TrEMBL record:
An example Gene Ontology molecular-function term: cytokine receptor activity
Residues in Type I cytokine receptor cytokine-binding domain copies: 128-221
GO-annotated cellular components: external side of plasma membrane
Phylogenetic classification of the source organism: Eukaryota, Metazoa, Chordata, Craniata, Vertebrata
Membrane-topology annotation of the record: Single-pass type I membrane protein
Subunit text: Interleukin-13 receptor is a complex of IL4R, IL13RA1, and possibly other components. Interacts with TRAF3IP1. Interacts with IL4.
Domain of life: Eukaryota
Keywords of the record: Disulfide bond, Glycoprotein, Membrane, Receptor, Repeat, Signal, Transmembrane, Transmembrane helix
Pfam families: Il13Ra_Ig (PF18001), IL6Ra-bind (PF09240)
Domain Interleukin-13 receptor subunit alpha-1 Ig-like residues, every copy: 29-122
Function: Binds with low affinity to interleukin-13 (IL13). Together with IL4RA can form a functional receptor for IL13. Also serves as an alternate accessory protein to the common cytokine receptor gamma chain for interleukin-4 (IL4) signaling, but cannot replace the function of IL2RG in allowing enhanced interleukin-2 (IL2) binding activity.
Protein name as it appears in the record: Interleukin-13 receptor subunit alpha-1
Species whose genome carries this gene: Rhinolophus ferrumequinum (Greater horseshoe bat)
Amino acid sequence: MELPARLCGLWALLLCFADGGDAAPTETQPPVTNLSVSVENLCTVIWTWNPPEGASPNCSLWYFSHFGNKQDKKIAPETHRSKEVPLNERVCLQVGSQCSTNESDNPSILVEKCISPPEGDPESAVTELQCIWHNLSYMNCTWLPGRNTRPDTNYTLYYWHSSLGKILQCEDIYTAGQHIGCSFALTKLKDSSFDQHSVQVMVKDNAGKIRPSFNIVPLTSHVQPDPPHIKNLFFQHGDLYVLGKNPQNFYSRCLSYEVEFNNSQTETHYILSVEEPKCDNLEFEGNLEGTICFRVPGVFPDTLNTVRIRVKTNKFCYEDDKLWSNWSPAMSIGKKANPTFYITMLLIIPVIVAGAIIVLLLYLKRLKIIIFPPIPDPGKIFKEMFGDQNDDTLLQGALPTIPCGTPGIKLTTLWLRACAPTNSHPRGSSSAQGAVFNLSCGGRSPPSLAGLEELNQQPCG
Ligand SMILES: *[C@@H]1O[C@H](CO)[C@@H](O)[C@H](O)[C@H]1NC(C)=O
Ligand SMILES: *[C@@H]1O[C@H](CO)[C@@H](O)[C@H](O)[C@H]1NC(C)=O
Ligand SMILES: *[C@@H]1O[C@H](CO)[C@@H](O)[C@H](O)[C@H]1NC(C)=O
Ligand SMILES: *[C@@H]1O[C@H](CO)[C@@H](O)[C@H](O)[C@H]1NC(C)=O
Ligand SMILES: *[C@@H]1O[C@H](CO)[C@@H](O)[C@H](O)[C@H]1NC(C)=O
Ligand SMILES: *[C@@H]1O[C@H](CO)[C@@H](O)[C@H](O)[C@H]1NC(C)=O
Ligand SMILES: *[C@@H]1O[C@H](CO)[C@@H](O)[C@H](O)[C@H]1NC(C)=O
């Protein structure tokens, strides 16, 4: 008889519960009414509601609210709640009323109101919309075009923050590779609460073809400082000291530092991470006000040392600490490489070069002889042809002196007609004497007498 016994137990439990329920004064509250939602600026979403109808007069009304997924629970007496939300996704708020500030108090039924992202193809919206606040003086926002977009889409960026009366359009659009960007001036205000705010940005196109994209940039993060500057390097008690200056707009306590140290001769390269840029026991004549100081131990003063520094924001003042500034201009100290080495090099290099040139010239001369053998003296050939003819001055003068291979001149076959002076002819012939040579380049082919007879018929000169 197990089952009846169990059932009895169950009944007892249920009865017990019912009794307890009756005993507790759980008067359920009526729900809030007229819950509505609206958007101000670019991404300030405001929910408003009215008090419940028929609430107990003894109840001091409180409102319990949270966003979808039970995030950001809040109990407050106001009948509105706002939040900066990048409207790329649907956001819902649930609100209920209750009579105390106690969270575990039973609130009324929760009423929900949602806000949806703007209409349009989500694939057309730009992606990776992000902004960096450079030097606390200008904001650079960049993004990538969405997948479903025409390549000639003209983008516009709008921005708003609490110090502006209205939404402004960013004018300075630029492209950097695949990314598109826009930068606008944003200077840190004296108002200390400014840092607590955010900048709301929205990117859409002029034609309204793409879905707008939103981002909210908290001013306590995404800050990239300008690089610091090195003012002085010196050795003291065997340590290297680096004196520098913070980038404008930043205090030392808000920055973390890296000191890079290079020595090309000893091939040392290391990076020193520094939180507090201060040097104790430094004997320094002069004002160290506003100066940052680093001590680099283990440096050889006899060699050339190169130093540069960079900074990033730290957790004391900012929420993220990932954006390093560029490196400062490098500064060097110490002697350059051994001067005798340079002198030796200065002497040796010209000797080597001269030797190389001589070898090259000799080689070139040999090469020239191989490729272009010398032209045989055509005067000699002429002499042979005319036997005892010895007056060859005229001929010599007429002979070509163009060497083979002269650029621009193609010397393949040259017909040369030579006239011997009639008066000196041994045979006393009154007719002009002529000779025609076929001078192949290099004189390899023997002189040809072809056409000589014909030519000889014509008067010479
Ligand atoms: C809700 O809004 C309607 C119209 O705006 C108004 O008539 C009604 O009184 C409101 N309800 C409450 C409880 O304020
Ligand atoms: C409201 O409180 C008063 C006294 O504090 C009490 O007399 C009255 O019965 C209470 N009314 C209700 C509806 O609880
Ligand atoms: C809230 O209510 C619970 C029980 O309902 C009680 O134990 C707790 O003390 C209350 N807290 C406050 C702050 O009133
Ligand atoms: C950094 O900001 C300061 C003051 O806001 C300004 O004077 C300086 O020119 C800025 N530096 C650069 C590189 O823009
Ligand atoms: C920020 O924008 C300016 C102006 O368009 C540009 O010159 C600069 O290179 C940008 N800086 C970075 C880090 O992208
Ligand atoms: C973008 O602007 C250019 C020039 O202003 C224009 O020729 C082009 O058609 C525009 N693109 C779109 C998609 O409207
Ligand atoms: C120091 O050495 C590193 C590694 O060799 C190099 O990347 C860096 O550019 C050097 N820095 C300077 C200032 O020459």
